[in-house]
Design goal:
The structure holds two protein chains of two kinds.
Chain A lengths: L3 E4 L2 E4 L5 E7 L6 E7 L6 E7 L5 E2 L8 E7 L2 E6 L8 E7 L8 E2 L3 E5 L1
Parallel strand pairs in A: 2-11
Antiparallel strand pairs in A: 1-3, 3-8, 4-5, 4-9, 5-6, 7-8, 9-10, 9-11
Chain B lengths: L3 E4 L2 E5 L4 E7 L3 E9 L6 E6 L5 E4 L2 E5 L5 E6 L8 E9 L6 E2 L3 E6 L1
Parallel strand pairs in B: 2-11
Antiparallel strand pairs in B: 1-3, 3-8, 4-5, 4-9, 6-7, 7-8, 9-10, 9-11
Classes of the chains: A mainly beta, B mainly beta.
Amino acid sequence: GAVVSQHPSRVICKSGTSVKIECRSLDFQATTMFWYRQFPKQSLMLMATSNEGSKATYEQGVEKDKFLINHASLTLSTLTVTSAHPEDSSFYICSAGRANNQPQHFGDGTRLSIL
Amino acid sequence: GQQVMQIPQYQHVQEGEDFTTYCNSSTTLSNIQWYKQRPGGHPVFLIQLVKSGEVKKQKRLTFQFGEAKKNSSLHITATQTTDVGTYFCAGQPLNDYKLSFGAGTTVTVRA
């Protein structure tokens, strides 16, 4: 069964709306989770590393004020896309591993469509 | 920064044929991982290679890690329609935990 749960699976909303996506590790504690964005027919691009109890680490070119990450517990990280615009439409996926050098378990992804 | 190159980007295969996808990293890796993503789905972990020169098999899939730990390959024999999807390699560099994904090889199969 799934070890990482991501919710919601699909969001369609108007431009200017803020959208929160949750990522939960179900049977292990994850001090680190990762958030990726994937455009159609492209690879996964790491957006940020979510660190439990501290600030997220963002990749170059990713606006931290646009993509707010909160990792308040060892099993939950959230990504909030603030004031979303059509160009933010994408497939957002989180992942977590039992340890940093262990394979990643991916959530089902969230397909975000901004009208 | 580290880059992982993966080729080919697309692989259209006759059912029953073999094919190989290749990954090359610009830097030495701690390990390399392979994932498969079905259309509309999320990446699913296939295997992790850690040792130099390592070869692992999963039924019709053979994974190799190069001696220098900078390249890897996935070879699929007797391709079936269930093999359809995109195969990604993901390299984890030394002294870092972030994965760098290759561009992926999207496999389609003709019966």
